[in-house]
Amino acid sequence: MKRMKKFLLFTLLIVCLLGVSASAKTSTNEKSVRKTISTFFSAAKKYNIPKMKKYFTKSANPKFFSNNPYMRNYLKKENRYISYKIKYVEIYGKEAKVRVAVNYPTIYDSAYSALSDMILRAILYPNSNLKKYLQNRILYYTKRNDDEQNYLEDDTYNIYLRKINGKWLISKWSVKLSDTIHSKYQSAYNDFFDEY
Prior knowledge:
Blueprint: H1 2-45, H2 49-53, H3 69-78, E1 83-92, E2 95-105, H4 108-124, H5 130-145, E3 152-164, E4 167-170, H6 175-181, H7 185-195
Antiparallel strand pairs: 1-2, 2-3, 3-4
Helix pairs in contact: 4-5, 4-7
C-alpha cells in the first residue's frame, strides 16, 4: 500500500511538472506573438514599409504603396491615428490566431470618387501623372467629406501567424488588414472595379 501511495505521488508530481513546463512555453509563445503584433502596428502607424515587411512570411505577399510616394506620404500622416487592442491569442503548435479590434482612418468614399475621376483623367489625358492625380483627388474628397462622413472606422478580425526559424510572422494578407493600414483604400478599389 505504501508503494502504491509513493507511486501515485510520484506520478502526480511528474504530471504537475509537465503541465507547468507546457504552460511556461505557451506563455513565452504568447508573449512573442503579442510582440510581433505590437511591433507590426508600430511600423504601420508610421507607414514604414521596410519594417512592416519584416513581419510577414514570404508567402503572405503583402501589398504596399511602394511605388507611389504620394500615397505613402499621405498614409504616414493618417496612420498615426490607428489604434488596436488584442482580444485574445490562440496558439496551435507553430500556428497562431490573434483576434484584434482596430480603429483606423477611412478614406473609402474619397478613394472611390477619386478612382472614378482617375479613370476619366486617363481617358482624356493619357500621358498625365495618374498617381499624383489620384492622390490629389483623394485629398480633395477627404477635405470635402470630412464633415459628412465618419472619419474613423472600427473593425474586429483575425490575424494569422506562423512560427518560422523561431520568429512569429504574419502568414496571411487580408483585405481587412490592408484596409487598416491603407485607410480602407483596398475595399474602395475592389468595390469600384467590381462594379465597373
